[in-house]
Amino acid sequence: MRLLGDETDGRILLHGIGTVLVVIAGGALAALSPLALKALVDAVATSRHAGGPGRWTSALPYGAGYLLLLLAGRVMTDIRPLLSGAINQRLHSRLTRRFFDHVLRLPMGYLLKRRNGELQHSLDLASAGAQLMVSHLAGSLLPVAVFGAAALAYLAIFSTGMRQMSKTIQEVSKASLETHAQLGDGLAHLETLRHFTAEEQARRSLQGSSAILERRWKRLDRLNVVIALEASTTFAISLAGCLFIGGDAVSRNALSIGGFVLTTVYTLQMVRPLESLGTAARDFARALGYLHPLLELLAQPLANDSTAPAAEAPTGALGPRHGTTIRLENLHFGYDPDRPVIKGVDLEVAAGSKTAIVGRSGSGKSSLARLLMRLHSPQQGRILLDGRPIDSIDAVELRRTLVGLVPQETALLHETIAGNIALGMPTATGEDIRLAARGAQLGELVDALPHGLDTPVGERGMLLSGGERQRVGIARALLRRPRLYLLDEPTSMLDSKTELEIQKALRSCADGATTIVIAHRLSTIVDADEIVVLEAGRIHERGSHGALLAKNGLYAQMWRQQCADPD
Q1: Which residues pair with 357 in a beta bridge?
Q2: Quick one: which of 162, 94, 169, 86 has its CA closest to 125?
Q3: Which pTM was predicted?
């Protein structure tokens, strides 16, 4: 309820007030219609004993009044979905924006443990839960408030049912999240599944999670039936008592036939909102279960990132910028604190220098890049940029103007080439984007395409080759003109000719800026001012290419292996 309260704005409140007024009007009309029916019945009963051709005339006004009340009641019922629907859509829109904003600021460590389908389905469940709550707040609970005194009996029945259902509904939500996560994984990796003939394995995995979801839904449906039967029994007993009392009163001439009809109709009108209360109680329990995954997500602490806007990198000619000094002090980090990836690294990188970080797979190279981008925080130690602790630098300033990243695998959005190059740089001009594209050796590709830079790249950039996607990633970094280029295997997917051209372009554009290159192919970093060799999360040795070969250590061993097997 607090979540719904936080997302309620003036427009939702206005529609809510309108809904309440419509419900009150409908309730008043429903309360008046039995009185009109009583008067009509009594008038008809009296007219039977009257003589003359106009004996039914006296009953006509009562009939017309009764029909008008029924018609007005139906109109109120038809108007209510218009108002409640506007509330539901507005609430869904605000929940979606809050969910997306929250996910964008969650720590990467948390997001790496969750699957995309699971995260997205938590929003779907929350929206469904919010709609259930809104519909019953307006359509069921408010009318019941008018007949609140009689609701206590039904509350006693349904309170027990709600407690029983809460746990079952949460189990249904968990199983539903797992099923959608499996489905999301399969849809996101269709090509991989086909490459490794794993379609049947994916089907079995989805079938297993779907079967669990189906069993939990059946358990929930059985609970619903039990609670409904208990409510029906209560209804039958209460109605039988009402009919007995009314019939006895008529037999003693203490109640007219119209009065008997009136009491019977009022009894039915009392029971109808009470039954709605039972449905609302069940649906509220279900809604709370649906909201539970999103509430858990929103309760997660955000990453230590400021979202305040920062000045954008200057645009224009892709010229050099002065570099930044980097210092790592006693750095310790692990995605799981019990399994450290980086262990006590001390390193200083001079401004304007080129430093290469090499090592075997799993030595901690890419983890250092993630720490420099502040996607994770170290468990111990600190990182300084020009003497400033990195966690004191605004995250937008860090990623937009200080550091230009070229990751090992460039991820592209379903956008145009220009839109992907200018990702995060909305004010970049067309000329800036063209210069960045040519600096990344994309000129020939762009010139050959009918729509040039406005060519869509498809889902995850699959309309481009791996090398072309990587060059788009390099263009992104060039566009920012950062003080630090962080290159994580930037040419790993390029052919030898293009690799040489890209390296030349990077050296030209990075002139004056600090460059950190994470490399597997040692031939690409022989010109580095310093090469740092990592082994098991620690600095094993460091020096220039020639000095490390002369040392005949781990680097020299890796060099000889690559020279013997250049592929």
Answers
A1: 518, 532
A2: 169
A3: 0.62
Q: So where are the chain's domains?
A: 2-298, 326-564
Residue 117, CA distances (Å) to 111, 114, 181, 279 in order: 12, 9, 4, 30
DSSP 49-102: T--STTTTGGGHHHHHHHHHHHHHHHHHHHHHHHHHHHHHHHHHHHHHHHHHHH
DSSP summary character for residue 148: G
Distance CA 475, CA 406 (A): 9
Residue 140 near residue 280 (C-beta atoms within 8 A): yes
SS3 461: helix
**CA 19 to chain centroid:** 29
Alpha-carbon span 122 to 174, nearest angstrom: 9
Angle among Cα 456, 459, 462 to the nearest 5 degrees reads 80
How many angstroms separate the CA atoms of 191 and 466, rounded?
A: 15
What pLDDT was estimated at residue 87? 77
| Mean pLDDT rounded to a whole number for the chain | 76
Q: Regarding beta strands 354-359 and 514-518, do their DSSP bridges make them parallel or antiparallel, or are they unpaired?
A: parallel
Pairing type for strands 380-385 and 326-333 reads antiparallel
For 215-218, the CB contacts below 8 A with 24+ separation are 216/168, 216/171, 216/172, 216/175, 217/172
More confident: 394 or 138: 394
* 450 CB neighbour count, 10 Å cutoff: 6
pLDDT above 90 covers a percentage of the chain that reads 10
3 state SS of 349: strand
Rounded to 5°, the CA angle 77-80-86 comes to 160
Question: Looking at the predicted structure, is the pLDDT value of residue 349 above 80?
Answer: yes
- Measured in degrees and rounded to the nearest 5, phi and psi for residue 326 equal -120, 135
pLDDT at 164 over 50: yes
Pick 326-564's CATH classification: 3.10.129.10, 3.40.50.300, 2.30.30.30, 3.90.1150.10: 3.40.50.300
Residue 516 has a pLDDT of 92
| Predicted confidence (pLDDT) per residue in 37-74, tens digit | 777 777 777 766 555 555 557 667 777 877 787 788 77
Q: Which CATH architecture has domain 2-298?
A: Up-down Bundle (1.20)
CB 62 within 8 A of CB 69: no
Element of type H or E holding 538 = strand 538-543
- Percentage of the chain beyond pLDDT 70 is 70
pLDDT by residue (tens digit) across 269-320?
666 666 666 676 667 777 777 777 777 777 777 766 644 444 444 444 444 4
> Higher model confidence: residue 175 or residue 313?
175
Dihedral Cα 302, 306, 307, 308, nearest 10 deg: 150
